[in-house]
Amino acid sequence: MPRPSNKAIRRQEIIRGLMSVMATTGYENASIQAIAKAAGLAPGLIHYHFKNKKEILIELVNLVIRTMEERFLARCKDASSPAQKIDAFVEAALALGDDADEELVAAWVMIASEAMRHEDIQKLYENVIKQNTLLLASLLQEYTQGSKSEMKKIAVMCIASIEGLYQLSQTTKDILPSGFAADTLKNLVFSSLTP
Amino acid sequence: MPRPSNKAIRRQEIIRGLMSVMATTGYENASIQAIAKAAGLAPGLIHYHFKNKKEILIELVNLVIRTMEERFLARCKDASSPAQKIDAFVEAALALGDDADEELVAAWVMIASEAMRHEDIQKLYENVIKQNTLLLASLLQEYTQGSKSEMKKIAVMCIASIEGLYQLSQTTKDILPSGFAADTLKNLVFSSLTP
Amino acid sequence: MPRPSNKAIRRQEIIRGLMSVMATTGYENASIQAIAKAAGLAPGLIHYHFKNKKEILIELVNLVIRTMEERFLARCKDASSPAQKIDAFVEAALALGDDADEELVAAWVMIASEAMRHEDIQKLYENVIKQNTLLLASLLQEYTQGSKSEMKKIAVMCIASIEGLYQLSQTTKDILPSGFAADTLKNLVFSSLTP
Amino acid sequence: MPRPSNKAIRRQEIIRGLMSVMATTGYENASIQAIAKAAGLAPGLIHYHFKNKKEILIELVNLVIRTMEERFLARCKDASSPAQKIDAFVEAALALGDDADEELVAAWVMIASEAMRHEDIQKLYENVIKQNTLLLASLLQEYTQGSKSEMKKIAVMCIASIEGLYQLSQTTKDILPSGFAADTLKNLVFSSLTP
DNA sequence: TATGAATGAGTATTCATTCAT
DNA sequence: CATGAATGAATACTCATTCAT
Questions:
Q1: How far is the CA of D94 from the C1' of F14 (A)?
Q2: pLDDT at residue number A99
Q3: Which CATH number is B164's domain given?
Q4: What is the DSSP string of A2-15?
Q5: Residue ranges in chain C modelled with pLDDT below 70
Q6: Protein-contacted bases of chain F (C-beta within 7 A)
Q7: Please, are residues B180 and A153 in contact by the beta-carbon 8 Å criterion?
Q8: Which of the residues in chain D have pLDDT under 70?
Q9: What pLDDT shows up at residue D1?
Q10: Is A73 part of a structural domain of the chain?
Q11: Which residue among B153, B168, B189 places its CB closest to the CB of A163?
Q12: Is the model's pLDDT at B195 over the cut of 60?
């Protein structure tokens, strides 16, 4: 009887290893050795489970994306009106708290910058941005019967703010009034819609 | 009789070499060889003019910052009212056009991500963000006699939007409605102020 | 199933590689390539086993020091009187014979000169010199009930002679009457003690 | 009227530049740039006055040797008896005082270690050692009518002590009782002669 | 003579990837 | 599956030497 496969588990460990290393050093400086150490595994094992370093990155991107989606869905459960859903969207993106979130955001910012260098990462990143934009735009439209193109613009700007806030949270922490982000962004958005 | 010094010129060439390489590959992947090639110089010459790679990066950051400031000041010349100045601020940041701007923004996004890895870059980056935030906040306050802390929040959000838009412009170009950024951001800001 | 560790063996090989290269070229000129070649290993492997070149040097210094101590202890086994111990000390230091000794001395002379450039090597070197001096001084005192400070002076001079002879043996071989060193030094020391 | 040649002066400056750099860093680490800086000259000028780095070293060796000889001759002026001359020899070698001496000794120790690596330096070094040995041996013989070969042995040992003391003075300063060297060595030598 | 820019080869070090066990 | 040793290419940086001015 062969021992049960643990590929899936090992792959998760490795992906999380990359996430934690990347959060502080970026992708280029995340050596296989360091990833292995962070994952508590032997270096040689990495390439048994992944073809190469890039593949781990891609899986990490997918993991982060999935996690973010889940955050939104969880908050959406109790939302019925469009306004509540918009609220849920922004809260899911910006009302971050624990250490896991912290690392997730750090990794995400690193991923965003890797999107500039790797076409495949760029595609994944673009997809999320595109989807989120469309989602938010349709929520906005539902909420206020404004023009579609106008709602799209506001949605893009909103997404940009979120990405920019992630960035600033990693580089200029002490400039951000603590916990201000979600509320301020919602204010901005809603006030631009009501007239 | 002695050969005339050309240090300043060479240093500029090298800095621009780094900028152009970084714009597409990031800092870690900007090899000295590549920088030299982009600058049209022999590799060995780089370290004759700069102590190390980091020093080139720092000078590049300073150059980009200076250039951005000049853009704002140029647009501010004709602005008298606070509203016009806010307008100038946003336009200077977002109404970008030619290839030089393109490269500048690309380099800036890369710099922002380097700020996460190098403390000295982080300091420079933080300083600009801080200064811009304060500047914008005081303009907003001048314009609407709202509370200082409220204006600060809006200013931060605005700066975040700008940084986020830079990011998106590099990673998800075709999602941005062309030329929409400045106007949409101004709308958002002003509509949040008037009530 | 895992490959058995051979770190200790490889490290020894590398250290001996450095010793043999240093013996002829000195530390600065002992390139990693040359060390690897002397050890029969791939260059990249050196840095798998050692953090950097300096670390190899430090281990080499420790090895040489240990070897020298063992030489003395081996000769001391049969020594009971102080005079015999002094004899053993000088013999251990100077009655050198085979090729291994030759290389050891060559490496030691190189190490001594590196002590001028690297603080950590200087400390190791100083420690041995200091310990040997104290050891010899106490032997001398045991032998002749002379003043402590006087014995210390003779001990230092004796150690200096030994180091100087090492030096000359590497640089001006054909000036040294073969095999004269130990006897002559003992004569000098004992004749200065008897009055 | 052509400007008067200053080759000799420049060469001296460069040689002293090397001496001062070597005293602290050794020959391999004495870069042409550093030598030029120490000499207060432009880097390019070095190779105008010297074919290559080695040539400067050779001239430095000659300079140091000459300086040492002069020290001995100066002290010999008032010496008439063999004992006084032996005294002068040892004093000239070991009764060092000012900063210039300090640098000279440091450079000399570095030179001695370079003798292991460069055949031409080895020759120069060997010559001095040989000559000094013969000189001292003949003085010893004049003083005590002992056998020539015996006197040679003592002379070699004496020279070795001196070289060893130079070495220790650079590497383990605080172990040497201050100012003890000359007297102790003279005691050792004379007591070994009188039986 | 003098200056300092330029070149190119050389060096330590890192690291993704492979492979023997 | 797992381990950790091994490889070789890539990279930042140094430096003697040359050369244009």
A1: 38
A2: 76
A3: 1.10.357.10
A4: PPPP-HHHHHHHHH
A5: 1-2, 194-195
A6: 1-21
A7: yes
A8: 1-4, 194-195
A9: 45
A10: yes
A11: B168
A12: no
Q: Could you list the residue range(s) of the whole structural domain that residue A141 is in? A: 58-193
Any domain includes B24: no
Q: Which residues of B touch A177 (CB under 8 A)?
A: 149, 152-153, 156
Contact B176 A156 (CB under 8 A): yes
Lowest mean pLDDT among A159-173, B122-136, D174-188: D174-188
C68 φ, ψ to 5°? Answer: -65, -45
Q: Evaluate whether residue C179 is within a structural domain.
A: yes
Q: Is residue A37's beta carbon less than 7 angstroms from any atom in nucleic acid strand F?
A: no
C11 touches strand F (CB under 7 A): no
Chain A interface mutation, best of B116, B126, B144, B194, highest count of A Cβ atoms under 10 Å: B116
Q: Distance, in angstroms, between A153 CA and closest chain B CA? A: 7
- How close B192 comes to chain A (CA, Å)? 5
Touching pair A, B by Cβ (3+ pairs < 8 Å): yes
Give me A187's structure tokens: 């204010």
The pLDDT of B23-51, averaged and rounded, is 97
Give the model's pLDDT for residue A4: 64
Q: How many domains does chain A have?
A: 1
Q: What is the DSSP letter of D4?
A: P
Q: Which residues of chain C neighbour D122 with C-beta distances below 8 Å?
A: 171-172
Predicted pLDDT of residue C179: 86
Nearest to B129 among A152, A175, A187 (CB): A175
Residues 6+ apart with CB under 8 A from C91: C75, C182
- Smallest Cβ–Cβ distance between D167 and the set C28, C112, C184 belongs to C112
State how far the Cα of C164 lies from the Cα of A175, in Å rounded to an integer.
65
Rounded to the nearest 5 degrees, what angle is found at the Cα of B62, between the Cα atoms of B59 and B67? 125
Give me chain B's average pLDDT, please. 94
Q: Which of residues 49-68 of B touch strand F (CB under 7 A)?
A: 51-54
Nucleotide nearest to A6 (CA to C1'): F1
**Chains C and D are touching, with contact defined as 3 or more CB–CB pairs separated by less than 8 Å:** yes
Nearest to C191 by CA among D141, D190, D191: D191
Q: Which residue is nearest to nucleotide F21 (CA to C1')?
A: B3
Quick one: which H or E segment has residue A38? helix A32-39
pLDDT interval class at B1 (50, 70, 90): low
Residue A54 has a pLDDT of 98
Which band of pLDDT confidence, cut at 50, 70 and 90, is reported for residue A143? very high
| Closest residue of chain B to A169, computed from CA coordinates | B160
CA dihedral (D38, D42, D47, D50) in degrees, to 10, reads -40
* Lowest model confidence (mean pLDDT) among A28-32, B101-105, B161-165: B101-105
Indicate whether A145 belongs to any domain. yes
Q: 3-state DSSP call for residue A84?
A: helix
